Each structure stands twice: as structure tokens, then as C-alpha cells.
């Protein structure tokens, strides 16, 4: 196992936050304030979430949280709900199994849902709409209505996309989500 020296890890975390804030500003998005370390969060995904939730266990996110706070037990606040290779629509219909928390069924226990989507190999517009855009809308509504004991959970989409398929009218992705 490779562990970073205690002084380097906070610097790396700070750099990641700075980079994300810079990217948000570059795309005219308001910077997002970091969540407090005690926020109960569930990460629903596939290999993208595996990259920071495991390999090696317990994963970089848990190890990083543990390294910067002795008051917060990340094993109590961070949960993974992963189905390898699964798109949003599959995770909506199928629990992760193996005793793992289910992001759909257990959302009431969490303040934050971080979810991912697979990149379709050959998306046609209708399949993209039903399997991706409509499912993002479903997950967001579910988090807002049922998360955090019914008070609503924040929902974040974590993705690796370079570009989304553009409809003929050229409407940007964020606007398409708002119009749904």
C-alpha cells in the first residue's frame, strides 16, 4: 500500500479543490462550496466511483477524509453503491447486492448523492434521452424528494464525458437538463 506523507495529502486535496473551482469558473458556473466532512454521502456508480472508493480498499476518498479529520469517521459518512459497468437506468432498477447500501432504496439516509453515467458507445438521440437525460432527471428528483430523511439530498453528477451528443438545435447540455 502506498500512503502519502501527512503534509502532502492536504496539499493534494487543496489542489483538487482549486482545480475544480478553476474549471467551474472557466465554464461560467458558480464555484461549489465543498461539503463539510461530516456530510453523509453515497456514491452510486461503476468503475468511475471504484477508482476512488476502492483499489486499494478502503479507497482514496475514505483515506483522504480520514487523514484530514480525526473527528469524522469516513466509514460512517461515506458509502459506495456500485454495480460494475452499469448506466444510471440499470442502477435505478437493480440494487448493488453483496450487502452494499442501495443508492435508490437508502437515499433517505444520505445528505449527498454522487452519481455517474457510462459513456454510450453509439448513442442515438432517443436512447440518449431515455437512458441518460431522463434518468438523470429521475435520480435528481428522487434525491431532492427522498434524500436526507425526506428533507432532500444534494445530487452531483460525476462524469468523464468530453462532450455530450448535441441535438440539431444546438441547445447546451445544462439547458437541456433545465428544460426537462
Question: In terms of topology, how is this protein built?
Answer:
Elements: H1 8-26, E1 41-45, H2 47-53, H3 60-68, H4 74-77, E2 78-82, H5 88-93, E3 112-115, H6 125-146, E4 154-157, H7 173-179
Report what the structure shows.
Helices cover 41% and strands 10% of the residues. The protein is globular. The model is unreliable at 1-26 (pLDDT under 50). It starts with 7 loop residues before the first helix and ends with a helix. Helix 6 (125-146) links the parallel strand 3 and strand 4. A four-stranded parallel beta sheet has the order 2-1-3-4, with helices on both faces. It contains seven helices and four strands; from the N terminus they run αβαααβαβαβα. It has 180 residues and is α/β, with parallel strands linked by helices.
